[in-house]
Amino acid sequence: MGEPVIQLRGVSKAYRKGGQTLVVLDGLDMDVERGEFLALMGPSGSGKSTILNLIGGLDLPDSGSVVVAGASVPDLRGDALSSWRARHTGYVFQAFNLIPVLTALESVELPLLLTPLSKAERREQARYALEIVGLADRLDHRPKQLSGGQEQRVAIARAIAMDPTILLCDEPTGDLDRDSADQVLELLARLSAEHDKTVVMVTHDQKAGDDATRILHLDKGVVEDADA
Amino acid sequence: MNLGRLVRRQALSHPVRALLTIGAVAVAIFLLCFLRSIVTSLDAAVKESSGRRIITASAVSLFQALPASYNEAIAAIDGVDTVSRFTWFGGVYKDPENFFAQFGTDPELLLSQYPEIALSEEAKQAWFDDKRGAIVGIGIAEKFGWEVGDTVPILGTIFPRPGDEPWEFTIHGIYRSTRANVDEMTMYFHWSYLDESIESGDSMGPRGTSVYLIRLEDGWEGEEVAQAIDDYYAGGPQRTRTQPEAAFQADFVNMMGNLPTFLGMIGAAVLVAILFGVVNTMTIAARERLRSMGILKSVGFSDRIPLRLYLMESTMLVLLGGGIGIGLAFVTQAPLRAVFGAFIPVYHIATETYLAAVVTCIAVGLISGLVPAIRAARLKPIEALRRGT
What are phi and psi of A215, to 5 degrees? Predict the structure, then answer.
C-alpha cells in the first residue's frame, strides 16, 4: 500500500448555532488510498458532508491536519486554493448543479476554461468525458432537456473533465430514481476501478455499499465502524 | 464556449427584463445627451462669438428700438470699422406655430461682418439687387420646404400691414453657417425695405433699429470702443448699452433663467434613476446567479469570478442601452433642430457629449455590477450553492 491520497489527522470541527456549540467532528483520523471508492454513511449531522468540504477546501477545520494529494489544504488560500481545487478535485452534488443556460458539452467544457487548452482541444476533452459517462448523443442538450440521471451524469463528466485525482460526491443519488441511481453508482465504481479515480461519496443509499470498495459509518463526529 | 457567451446567455435568459433594462438605459442616455446638448449648444453660440464684433442696443431694454440716425454717428467713432442695422421682425409663416427668427439688416454690411454666413457670390448679388429679397438658413428652408426663387408670405406681428396682409419675400439664397454662433434657422432681409414700408404707410410698427452690429477696426479693443459709444449717447436722446458679441449672446441665454443649472439637475436625477434601475436589475440577476457562482468556484474558478461576470453583464446591458440612446440622440439632431429651432437654433450634439455618455454608461455599468459582485465574491462556494435558487 502506498501513501494515502487523503489523510485526516485529529480533525475537529464545531459549529455555533443558536448560542450552542455543535461538535460535528471530534478528533477524526481517516486515510483514503488512491483509486479507492469510499462511501461515508451515517445519520444526518454525523459530519459526512463536513468531511467532504474539508477535503475539498470548502471549509476549514478547527484543529487537526487535512493533507490531500500532498498539499495541506487548510494552508491554501485564495488563488492557490482555487487552482489546487481545479487540478485535484471534481465535485458531484445531490442537486446536479448544472448551469441552466449551458448545453451538456458547454457545462463539461466550463472547468477546462481554466487550462491553456485551445478551443478545439477543450471541446475534444469535454466530448471524451461525456462519452465516458455514456452521453455522447446528448452534447447539445440543456439541463431542462435531460432526465435527472442524465443531468447527474453530465455533472460527473464535468467533475472528471480536468482529470482530477479525487471525486467528491455529496449524495449523488439522493435526487434520483432507483434505476438512475444504480447507473450513477456503477459509473462512479467504474471511474474508480478503470480510471484510477479516488471517489469519496457521502450517501444514505444502502445499496451504495454494493459498489463502494469501503464504507465508513460515522456517528457524532467519530468513525463508528468500517466495512471493507 | 467562453465566459462571454455564458454572460450573454445568462443576461438574456430573462429577455423581457433585459429588454426593459436596455430600453430604460437607452431613454435615459438619450435624455442626458439631449439636455446636455441644449446647454452646450447655447454655450457654443457664446464661445464662438467673435471678439472683433460688438453690439449696441438700447440701455433701457432690448425691445426698445434705437433711432436710425445713430448709424452715422456710431460709424464716425474711433475704432469702428463698419456698422449695420439689425431689426427683430418677429413675423410668422402662415400661422403663429411657425414662429422663427427674421431680421431686417444691411445685406452687404452684414455679410462682410459675418463671414460665418456661407453663401454663393451669385446668391449674394441677387439678394443685394432685390429690395424684397431675403436669404434663409438651410434649417428653416428644409423645415418649410423653401427653395431659391420661392416667394414666401410672412405675417408681421410687430410690423403688421394694413388688412393683415402678409409681407412677401423672395428667397435668393439658402445659407449655411460655418460656426456655432450663427444659426441656420434665420431669415435676413433688407432693413431699408422695412423702413421704407413704415414710412410710406405700407406697414405699422416702430421705426429705428433693434441693435447695431459693429465690426472693429484692427488694433482696437471692444471694451474701449463700446465705452466710447455709450459715452457718446450718455446724454440721450436714448442711452445705449454696448457689449461684446459674446456677452450679448450670453444675455440672451440668461433671459431663459438659470437654464444650465435646471437642466443639470434634471440630468442628475435621470442619472440617479438609471443607476438605481440597473443596480436593481443586477441585484435580482445576481441573486439568481448565486448558484452558478458557487458552481464556478467549486470547479476551480477564483473568488473574483463573480466580479468579472457581473461586471461584464451589467456593462454589456448598459452599453447596449447606451449605444441605442446615443444613436437615437445622433439621428434626432436634425428633427429636434426643426422642432426647437426658434429657441435653440444651433442645437447639435458635441463630441464631448458623446464621450460623456459613453463614460456615464461605463460608470453605471461598473457601479451596478460591483455592488452584487462584491457580495458574491465574499461568499464561500458552499454558501453560494446553498443560497442560490
Answer: -125, 130
- Residue A78 with chain B: CB contacts under 8 Å: 302-303
DSSP assignment of B228-240: HHHHHTTTSSS-E
Does residue A144 belong to any structural domain of this protein?
yes
Q: Which residues of B touch A (CB under 8 A)?
A: 1-3, 5-6, 9-10, 13, 291-292, 294-303, 380-382, 385
Q: Which residue of B has its CA nearest to A113?
A: B2
Contact (CB<8Å) A102/B301: no
Q: Answer yes or no: do B298 and A162 touch at CB < 8 A.
A: no
Task: State the nearest Cα–Cα gap between B1 and chain A, in angstroms.
Answer: 6
Do the beta carbons of residue A33 and residue A198 sit within 8 Å? yes
- A83 three-state secondary structure: helix
Q: Could you read off the pLDDT tens digit of each residue along chain A, which spans 228 residues?
A: 567 999 999 999 998 877 888 888 989 999 999 999 999 998 888 888 899 999 998 888 999 999 999 899 999 988 898 889 889 999 998 888 899 999 999 999 999 998 899 999 999 999 999 999 999 999 999 999 999 999 999 999 999 999 899 999 998 988 888 888 888 899 999 999 988 899 999 998 888 777 888 998 888 777 776 665
Within-domain flag for A64: no
Residues 6+ away with beta carbon under 8 Å from A214? A36, A37, A38, A39, A226, A227, A228
Residue ranges of domains in chain B? 3-45+257-387, 60-238
DSSP helix/strand/coil, A166: strand
For the domain that residue A122 is a member of, what is the CATH number? 3.40.50.300
Backbone angles phi and psi of B351, in degrees to 5: -55, -35
List, as ranges, residues 84-123 from A with C-beta within 8 Å of B: 85-87, 90-91, 93, 97-102, 105-106, 109-111, 113-114, 119, 122-123
Beta-strand pair A198-202/A214-219? unpaired
**Residue numbers of the domain that contains A202:** 35-47+78-227
Query: Which site among B298, B303, B387 would you substitute to test the A interface, given the most A Cβ atoms closer than 10 Å to its Cβ?
Result: B298
The total number of structural domains in chain A stands at 1
Measured CA to CA, the distance from residue A171 to residue A168 in angstroms comes to 10
- Checking ipTM against 0.90, whether it exceeds it is no
CA distance B118 to B179: 10
